[in-house]
Amino acid sequence: MNGVFELFPVKFYRNHYQQHGLVSALLGPQLDQLFESQKPIRSLGNTITTYGRGQDMLEWEETLLLKDWTDWILQSVRQYWDSMEFDSGVEPFFINMWGNIQKTDIGLQKHRHSYIAKHKVSTITAGSFYLSASPDQGRLIVENPDSVARSFMPLADTDDGFTQELDVYSGDLVLMPAWMLHGVTSNISTTPRVTIAFDIGYRSRQ
Questions:
Q1: CA distances from 5 to 1, 30, 151 (A)
Q2: What is the pLDDT of residues 72-103, one digit of tens each?
Q3: Distance between CA atoms of 19 and 67, rounded to whole angstroms?
Q4: Cβ-based neighbours of 18, under 8 Å, separated by 6 or more
């Protein structure tokens, strides 16, 4: 084949949970209480998070009551992995789960998910479920994996192709490779943006 071509496209996954109002009703009040008791983290763009603070959300009684929701997420992960031809002998599991909130004028610095020292396991897939989200509340930013190489190129427009922004809405689920650099644009609305984030690992199928 002659001419320009591309290799190694990165796959993402999006789904929408129709019963997201139930998830919000059960998890929202406790998250609100935790958010009020936590200070913003400057290194994360002043996002307020429950990550590493108190009980993991996977252990919450309210989360355990939402087994249909967590099963739906894991089924979505399986569909995502099937599209990438993952080994059929492995299955996904939640490593951890936490909540993030971005209030007005607050975004989230770009970051990636990797090795979780507490659990001695590496994240294979990063996920976000949006309790309260809209484009004005903050768009998901993902950075081109070859951005480091591109930074040395004499490009006419150095911003072109480095990042992509995705609109997300309440009830959406987004999955991506854990190594993908991602963040959130500033919330330009008066409604807080609330996300439940989680890390997914894999283990041998029972």
A1: 9, 50, 20
A2: 999 999 999 999 999 989 999 999 999 999 99
A3: 12
A4: 171
What distance in Å separates the CA atoms of residue 52 and residue 192, rounded to the nearest whole number? 21
Sheet with 48-49, strands from edge to edge, namely: 13-16, 172-177, 125-132, 193-204, 90-102, 48-49
Q: Measured between alpha carbons, how far is residue 52 from residues 48, 55, 96, 99, 146 in Å?
A: 12, 8, 10, 10, 31
Per the CB < 8 A criterion, the answer to whether 138 and 102 are in contact is yes
CATH code of the domain occupying 13-204: 2.60.120.620
The alpha carbon of residue 56 and the mean position of all alpha carbons in its chain are separated, in whole angstroms, by 16
- Cα–Cα distance measured from residue 98 to residue 199, given in angstroms and rounded to the nearest whole number: 9
Domain positions in the chain: 13-204
pLDDT tens string 146-203: 766 666 666 656 555 678 899 999 999 999 999 999 999 999 999 999 999 999 999 9
* C-alpha to C-alpha distances, 9 to 141, 145, 154, nearest whole angstrom: 17, 10, 23
| Structure-block tokens of residue 173 | 């689920």
What are the strands, taking DSSP E only, across 51-206? 90-102, 108-111, 115-116, 121-122, 125-132, 140-143, 163-166, 172-177, 182-184, 193-204
